[in-house]
Amino acid sequence: MYSKYFGKRPTSTFTMPGGGAAPPVDSRWQLEGKMTLRTALRIFGLDKTPNRATLLARMRVLMLEHHPDRGGEQRIAAAIGAAYNYLKAS
Q1: Is residue 81 included in any domain, yes or no?
Q2: Which position has the higher pLDDT, 11 or 59?
Q3: Which residues, in sequence order, are CB contacts of 10 under 8 Å at separation 6+?
Q4: What is the CATH number of the domain that holds 57?
């Protein structure tokens, strides 16, 4: 999906060739230690630091997909929140 506001939709849900589901462990969501700019950009699927509107739009899309109240995992939602707070502060 493409949006004029923030480019290609970031997502971690995809299917493997042959129709099977993707493996549950995705390096994009692994958060070890302290949050860094590189890690935050990887979580949001970005190459450079976004402006506030892009950051908010990405966070909303990711949280709608990965929020625990909608069937997502708590560790992924926590990683998205930490990355958002880090990028918002920088």
Answers
A1: yes
A2: 59
A3: 44, 45, 58, 61, 62
A4: 1.10.287.110
Distances (CA, A) of 40 to 62, 69, 77: 13, 23, 13
How many residues are recorded in the chain? 90
pLDDT at 33: 76
* Domains in the chain, number: 1
As a whole number of angstroms, the distance between CA 20 and CA 36 comes to 33
Report the C-alpha gap between 38 and 55 in whole angstroms. Answer: 15
Q: Crossing angle of helices 74-89/52-66, nearest 10°?
A: 170
Q: Within a domain: residue 9?
A: no
Domain housing 62:
36-90
